[in-house]
Amino acid sequence: MRKCTGMGVLLGVLVALSGSGIGAAAQAAPALTAEPHHDRTLKLVNYFVEKYHYRKTKLDDLLSSQILDRYLDALDANRSYFLAGDIEFFESYRFELDDYLGTQDSGPLFAIFNTYRSRVLNRIDYALGLLEKPFDFTVAEVYPFDRTEAPWAIDRVDIDDLWRRRIKNDYLVLKLEGKTRPEIVRTLKDRYQQQKRRILQISSQDVFQTIVNAYMSAIEPHTGYFSPRATENFKIRMSLSLEGIGAVLQTQNEFTVVRRVVPGGPAELEGSLRPGDRIVGVAQGDTEPVVDVIGWRLDDVVDLIRGPKGSIVRLQLRPDPKTGNTESRILVLTRDEIKLEEQAAQSSLLEVRDTKNIQRIGVIDVPTFYVDFDARARGDADYRSTTRDVRDLISELESEGVDGLIIDLRGNGGGALAEATALTGLFIDSGPIVQVRDARGRTRINRDPSDDLAYSGPLAVIVDRDSASASEIFSGAIQDYGRGIIVGEATYGKGTVQNLIDLDRYSQDPEQPLGQLKLTIAQFFRVSGASTQHRGVVPDITLPSRGSDSPYGEKALENALPFAKINPAAFSRFSNDDRAYDLKQLRELHNARVLSDPDFAYLTGLQEIELPLAKVTTISLLESQRKEDRSRRENEQKRIFETLKQAYGYDNAEERPAENLPRDAVLLESARILANISLDTFAGHLLVQRIEPGASTLNESETASPSADQ
Question: Buried (b) or exposed (e) across 222-254, using 16+ Cβ within 10 A?
């Protein structure tokens, strides 16, 4: 039963919390409440979710409980602002939010935000006050930087101690970078004051978007809501998607984090930006000062990074603290178009040899499933697409004389479904490629659009944890047909289809936009009947990698659709008795090589350093300990790299720089596996040499030492 609504809820919250000694901070800003058009938006959201979402979900007490958890997580994921008393009060709404949202009333959720804002303002004032006094970095204490599973702070004393250590860590990070006390104090004051300004700039529309997304994510992780402002930014990004630095960003706690580097963009071409890097500062041109962006809204950070083609942006980056490294670095990028040629599939040649045989392995790297929709719509005969480009590359490689072909889908997050279907068709005669089941349970089959076979030779597909969606459709079909061997890591596991609904079409006021709703409307299934959802595509041969062993991909997302199966489609497995291979024997040969392979030994060494750090949730505030930890990690990394150099005969010789190390161990081992399939007499140590198309094979004497591998 409801006790109060709207402003009454807000007053109830503030009265209940006034005993904490920090409730009065809410007076620093007027309370935010729902705007008149929000009830219309909620009504439409409720309708479309109930009518068209793939997962039939009822807005009831169970969902209400999940919405509250998701909303609190969206506001204070690191449990650094709310007190246990706040959470206890919010519990009164755990099984009532469904009633409020069902009648288009978001009052209690706005009240929770207003309490959150008062807590943030209070913490910022406290942080600014701490900067007036020096810190003692000879005291052995730690800062719990990851509090996602920690209990909420009990009272003012508890949260003050947490924030004292937080500010002390912020100070120490800058101190270890060589900054003086005046520089550190100035930087941190600017940062906290900027956070204060931004929390005060949050609008009712911003809060409403957070509320609806907590509601949507409680149903399924790929369903979401874009406010009118977010919708406009989305359209801008789409229209300008070929300009910028080429990185997909997200917010984690108060940091802007790199989620993915876009193939073909300036960041990918520069090569040093990595998923997980934190953007803590942005500067324009060669000389403008760095603007600290910790605590900024994501769209404001994006606005700083975005700019005209040819202009320079400098990013101050800091690694994920779980790596144990807090040193920042500056990355200089020139904004540019993300050229189709740089996103497009590209080929290369590898030679694999033992003492008797040479195999030429073609490699086609497919970074995304693309198609030039505009050119195709115009009827251009030579429009670009993944399938067209790969077909041409296959012809070029076969003219060079290849004994096997690798399709490299590592990092390929998907793209056009039709291209995944058509690309698969290049390697089979004909047949179904993927099954799609909609919210009504109806299943349609997408089939090979052409009956021609572009390549019938030995085939391997490399995948990793970031191969998703269309990549999983292609690799899953190749595996189901028995057309080739899949190597690498288990894929991401995204087997769902989303659609955008323009809510503005249903606005009762033409001058009042409502935004967009992204809805999951269908699910992919392989021709075998198995879903790619959750489990992804499991390789036939799993290769060692540097990736963490922590949950990743779809299975790590809350409320993700589960794995499912439907009836298989009618299809015939690929058959060629001349190239039948024994998978068990391939694994044994592979395992034997990995045991003595320097490249995989290097990857294993890095894992031994990094994996324990992935589980760490605290960091030392003892300056000497931080320096010692950093030095130990650097020495360990140097040691395993020196071991790798020695394995390839470099031995620190000036005349033989080891700039080609470390090598792409996964690609080279995939070539060896394919060579084992192509010619089953291959055994023992196999040398791999990258060659340019058109080049002749090397003489035997040129491959006498492992240093010939490139």
Answer: bbbbbbbebbebbeeeeeeebbbbbbebebebb
Its domain, for residue 554, covers 340-575
**Around Cβ 404, how many Cβ atoms within 10 Å?**
26
Total length of the chain = 710
**Which pLDDT band holds residue 328 (cuts at 50, 70, 90)?**
confident
From the number of C-beta atoms within 10 Å of its C-beta (0-12, 13-18, 19+), residue 21 rates as exposed
Based on the domain organization, do 294 and 389 belong to the same domain?
no
Alpha carbon 246 to its chain's center: 13
Question: Largest Cα–Cα distance in the chain?
Answer: 86
Contacts of 319 (CB under 8 A, 6+ apart): 276, 277, 278, 325, 326, 327
pLDDT the model gives residue 295: 79
Kindly list the catalytic residues: 469, 480, 494
Strand partners, 406: 363, 460
Given the structure tokens 């941190």, which residue do they identify?
A: 188
Are both 313 and 446 inside the same structural domain?
Answer: no
Alpha-carbon gap, residue 245 to 377, rounded angstroms: 28
253 has pLDDT over 80: no
Instruction: Tell me, yes or no, whether 432 lies in a domain.
Output: yes
In the block, tokens 């071409």 appear at 269
Residue among 639, 681, 641 at smallest CA distance from 661 = 641
The phi and psi torsions of 231 (rounded to 5 degrees) equal -65, -45
CB 364 within 8 A of CB 393: yes
Q: Return contacts of 581-589, CB within 8 angstroms, 24+ apart.
A: 581/485, 581/676, 581/677, 581/680, 583/485, 583/540, 583/541, 586/485, 586/541, 586/673, 586/676, 586/677, 587/541, 589/673, 589/676, 589/682, 589/683
Are 253 and 77 a contacting pair, CB within 8 Å? Answer: yes
Question: What share of the chain has pLDDT > 70, as a percent?
Answer: 85
Q: What number of H helices and E strands is found in the chain? A: 21, 22
Residues 320, 441 within the same domain: no
Among the listed residues 565, 406, 574, the one whose alpha carbon sits nearest the alpha carbon of residue 481? 574
Specify if 570 maps to a domain.
yes
Burial of 389 (0-12, 13-18, 19+ CB in 10 A): buried
pLDDT, position 275: 81
Q: How many domains does the chain have?
A: 4
Question: Which of the four pLDDT bands, split at 50, 70 and 90, describes residue 28?
Answer: low
3-state helix, strand, coil in the chain (%, to 5): 45, 15, 40
**Residues 359 and 310 reside in one and the same domain:** no
Q: How far is CA 203 from the centre of its chain?
A: 28
Do residue 288 and residue 152 come from a single domain?
A: no
**Cα angle at 369 between 368 and 371, to 5 degrees?**
120
Instruction: Check whether residue 300 and residue 366 sit in a common domain.
Output: no
Give the C-alpha separation, 573 to 576, whole Å: 10
Closest CA to 114 of 141, 89, 95: 89
Pairing outcome for strands 404-408 and 358-365: parallel
Average model confidence (pLDDT) across the chain: 85
Same-domain pairing of 185 and 50: yes
Q: Decide if 29 is inside a domain.
A: yes
The pLDDT confidence band at residue 265, using thresholds 50, 70 and 90, is confident
Give the pLDDT band (50/70/90) at residue 1.
Answer: very low
Residue 333 bridge partners (DSSP): 313
pLDDT of residue 354: 78
Helix (H) or strand (E) holding 259: strand 255-261
- Asked if 363 and 326 sit in the same domain, the reply is no
Among 285, 313, 337, the domain boundary falls at 337
Tell me which residue of 305, 289, 295, 374 sits closest to 340, measured CA to CA: 374
Residue listed under structure tokens 């997909």: 248
The answer as to whether 541 is a domain residue is: yes
> Amino acid letter at 82?
F
Strands (E), 121-254: 142-143, 224-226, 243-244, 247-252
CATH number at residue 560: 3.90.226.10
